[in-house]
Amino acid sequence: MIQLQHISKWINIGGRPNFILKDINLTIKEGEFLSIMGPSGSGKSTLLNIIGMLDEPSEGSYVFMDQDVFKLKEKHRSQLYKTKIGFVFQAYHLIDELTVYENIETPLIYQDMKSSERKAIVADILDRFQIVGKKDLFPTQLSGGQQQLVGIARALVAKPRLILADEPTGNLNSKQGEEIMELFKNLNREDKVTIIQVTHSEKNAEYGSHIIHLLDGRIEK
Questions:
Q1: 151: nearest Cα among 124, 180, 175, 186
Q2: How far apart are CA 83 and CA 160, in angstroms?
Q3: N or C end: fewer C-beta atoms under 10 angstroms in the chain?
Q4: CB-count burial class (<10 Å; 0-12, 13-18, 19+) for 61
Q5: CA–CA distance from 179 to each of 104, 106, 152, 187, 188 (Å)?
Q6: How far is CA 25 from CA 8, 47, 205, in A?
Q7: 110 φ, ψ to 5°?
Q8: With 0-12 CB in 10 A as exposed, 13-18 as middle and 19+ as buried, what is 97?
Q9: What b-and-e string marks burial along 144-172, b requiring 16 or more CB atoms within 10 Å of the CB?
Q10: According to DSSP H, which parts of the chain are helical?
Q11: Partners of 2 in beta bridges
């Protein structure tokens, strides 16, 4: 599903490259649940953003679902990540001016879909996440756990093949965090969604079928 070859990312400081990622080679199969661990500044979030097509490396190649990502036109690349990839962020990234319903509906607006079809899909996911009663509230009226649930519902509403989660339980208490991780585990097992999570937590990492460690921008052997 994903093949990264010789991915490096650097910024020039004083005429010299300062490496954020260095020679990353990684293959991720469909249906995998990968946990990426490493200390702060090791390049975890940068790697996730490159996989999610939010950032480009300084060199290297990336093949996603048999498509060479960096050779695609911007329009095609945008279409690919809007329809195939769902993001879950630690900071939720919900739109404060939109209700829970509208936040969840947002990814579907990018797709060629009738309004009635969108309503049915959003209603289904509100029910699945047991947040029907919250649909007309705004993000600021929700607890951290509820906001993260809405963030995950939004990530899933377009039925992505890949979920990228950046410290998804970082702002939650242990009970809420466990519920979110169980949710990911079920999505991976039952819906066959491929998941890549960045985490500091050993406990969360163990939900993955595979763990890699980053240190100073490299995958530790």
A1: 180
A2: 6
A3: C
A4: middle
A5: 19, 24, 12, 12, 14
A6: 10, 11, 20
A7: -75, -10
A8: exposed
A9: ebbbbbbbbbbbbbbebbbbbbbbbbbbb
A10: 44-51, 74-84, 100-109, 115-128, 144-156, 174-190, 202-205
A11: 28, 64
Residue 89 has pLDDT above 90, yes or no: no
CA distance 192 to 162: 9
Hey, where are the domains in the chain? 30-54+78-219
Residue corresponding to tokens 């960096």 = 70
Q: How far apart are CA 109 and CA 11, in angstroms?
A: 36
The stretch 73-94 carries a mean pLDDT of 89
CA distance to 46, 72, 97, 136, per residue, from 126 (Å): 31, 34, 19, 11
CB 10 within 8 A of CB 216: no
Return the pLDDT at 192: 92
**If 0-12 CB within 10 Å is exposed, 13-18 middle and 19+ buried, where does residue 194 land?**
buried
pLDDT in tens, 141-170: 999 889 988 999 999 999 999 999 999 888
What's the distance, Cα to Cα, between the start and end of the chain in Å? 22
Lookup: tokens for 174: 């242990």
Is the pLDDT score of 221 beyond 80?
no
pTM recorded for the entire structure:
0.91
**Could you confirm whether domain 30-54+78-219 is CATH 3.20.20.240?**
no
161 φ, ψ to 5°? -85, -20
